[in-house]
Amino acid sequence: MKSFIGFSSSAIFLLVLQATIFVSCYDPSPLQDFCVAIDEPIDYKSAVFVNGKFCKDPKLVKAEDFVFRGLNIPGNTMNKQGSNVTLVNVDLLPGLNTLGISLARLDYAPYGLNPPHTHPRGTEILVVVEGTLLVGFVTSNPNKLFTKVLHKGDVFVFPIGLIHFQFNVGHGPALAFAGLSSQNPGVITIANAVFGSDPPISIDVLMKAFQVDKHVIDALQKQFKD
């Protein structure tokens, strides 16, 4: 076959295939007005299953399916990290199903931390409502840190899949809201995943990865056991 603008047909095919794979990593676009999620349909034969959820019969859908109440209530920050994330995803708001978005309220005690973590399926955009936050994310190799101190009204974006954090550097409580580009973005807290996995990662692996001795790994794993 003839080449096209300097590319062979096989190269063009590979580019198209790569683009298709990339696009498929995100929530698919809806092909109907809505698909309100339900756990179990009344009639399995006629039920539609989308994004891991069954769709409610459109004739039975109500305005309440698109409402979540209570995001005005502060989260409990009485924990080791001094922070709390209230995530409004498809499990709490069934009308979000197939729409590719979710929302979170983030509360921070003074010097509270939302520790380094990733959202494997969503980009996050955060707006500070009260307080002062030190935020940042780290790129893939080579690991460059992008960080900024945010004040009330400031907005910051964390690209999909990258490790990021927020730390309350103010003397009082802080509050932020975040939108995420997935109905179920997921979260992997780095320290918990590495030192608190079940079953635990081999100590030999962790010793070599972090270049520390067994006593340090033992101490860290004890911090993240249930």
UniProtKB/TrEMBL annotation:
InterPro entries: Cupin_1, Germin, Germin_Mn-BS, RmlC-like_jellyroll, RmlC_Cupin_sf. One of its GO terms (molecular function) is manganese ion binding. Transmembrane segments: none annotated. Keywords: Apoplast, Disulfide bond, Glycoprotein, Manganese, Metal-binding, Secreted, Signal. May play a role in plant defense. Probably has no oxalate oxidase activity even if the active site is conserved. Belongs to the germin family. Mn(2+) binds at H117, H119, E124, H164. The gene is LOC111019889. Residues 69-218 form the Cupin type-1 domain. This is Germin-like protein. PANTHER family: GERMIN-LIKE PROTEIN SUBFAMILY 3 MEMBER 3. Residues 1-25 form the signal peptide. Its main location: secreted.
